[in-house]
Amino acid sequence: MLHYAIIVSYVLLSLALVLGFIRLARGPSLADRVVALELLASLTVGFIGVSVISSGRAPFLDVAMVLALTAFLAAVAFARYLEKGGQRSDH
Amino acid sequence: MIIEWLTGFTLVVGSGFMLVAALGVLRMPDLLTRMHATTKAGVLGAGLIMIGVALHFASGPVFAKAVAIIAFLILTAPVAAHVIGRAGYFMGLSLWEKTTVDELKGRYDEATHTLTSPPDVDTPPDDQGRA
What we know:
The complex is a heterodimer.
Chain A: H1 2-26, H2 30-55, H3 61-84
Helix pairs in contact in A: 1-2, 2-3
Chain B: H1 2-27, H2 31-57, H3 60-91, E1 108-109, E2 114-115, H4 119-122
Antiparallel strand pairs in B: 1-2
Helix pairs in contact in B: 1-2, 2-3
């Protein structure tokens, strides 16, 4: 039962990663790309959670924690760059 | 047995929410609506998956780590969304053409980067401080 749930979760998360990557590549403005990048980071946190269950190695959870924090820092830094000195609009 | 079913349920539902978030970021029409999709559904999905991890291992350290990750996500996602939305608005991104209310329109001065108050705050009602 859990085996099938893990496979289904992997498939759903991979699809979500592909969709988010399409927005990251297309996104008309830089802010849209930052939003897509943040979504990719939180998708990766979920991916790590599923892989921790399927491999049984609990210490990998630390990776998810660090990734969640650095993604937040990256988003704040990008936003500050956009607000203070970035190009006004790139579309 | 029941724990296994619960774990599988949270994993699948969490992944489903994250897929919905990705669909939203692809299909929504402008920056603010896209952010609305990713912030809420993304955090809910990751949180459900972490609940599944905590249920599966059922040990103290894993539970503490899962709770810490959920707390980080819930604390940081609104701040990041607010900051990006603010930067996007100040960059002059155009909103969706069907947007009905833009409260900041005409109050934000691009040159000085300041906001002016709405007019009804500047003139207090007559019955204050006169009686």
